Amino acid sequence: MYSEGEGYVDGSPITASSIDQLAQQHFPLCMKSLHVNLRKNNHLKHFGRLQYTLFLKGIGLSLEECILFWRQGFKGKTDNEFNSQYKYNIRHAYGEVGGDVNRRGKGYTPYSCQKILGDSNPGIGQTHGCPYRHYSVDNLVGFLQATGVNDKEVLRGVREDVGKMRYHIACNRVFDATHKNEIKKVKEDGSWSQTDLDTIVHPNTYFKRSFLLKQMAKAPKDA
Ligand code: SF4
Hints:
The protein is mainly alpha-helical. 60% of the residues lie in helices and 0% in strands. It has 14 helices and no strands. It has helices spanning 19-26, 29-41, 46-58, 63-73, 79-85, 87-93, 100-104, 113-118, 131-134, 137-146, 152-163, 167-178, 180-188, 203-218. α11 packs antiparallel against α12 (167-178) and α13 (180-188) crosses α14 (203-218). The radius of gyration is 18 Å and the shape is globular. Iron/sulfur cluster binds next to α2, α8, α9, α12 and α14.
């Protein structure tokens, strides 16, 4: 269960200009898909923007940096178009505007896997949702390969999971495979307990766990 601040990594350099790199290295497939589509089309439709904005908020991107991220991402829009059509919704998601309840509650909470998986299927041109559930299995495997997941056993497992509608199990399978060495290390040196490695059920947990594992692997041994 996600709670406020869950995906936030203290002291990590999360700015508009670091998102490209973070997306490649640490984002779950749902957010990679949104990121790739944003870069390809210089635009995302409403539900994709909302899903992605809330995730970015959850990893610790400030409101100012989030506005900058979207402004730079929507290359074809003028400042006037951006300010009048998109900026308010970003500020609303962060709880800076809107009714009292929205402002007091600091806007919306980042979406869990359950919410993303349970929402209505994306229509034509929409990019929100979970690729494990909403892509055709061949497109899903193609996308995984494009992100560097090429292990045949892993891809076979993903096909099987998806066939049984075990979408988040497929996602966890990919996480485990792409962080295999780091997970082995934290298990062997006892620095992480089994609870730290529980099944991931939230995109922000995916990010945070990935980020921390890779940081630990980079740290000097006796630091
Ligand atoms: Fe994202 Fe959850 Fe789907 Fe993984 S299972 S891609 S984290 S929605």
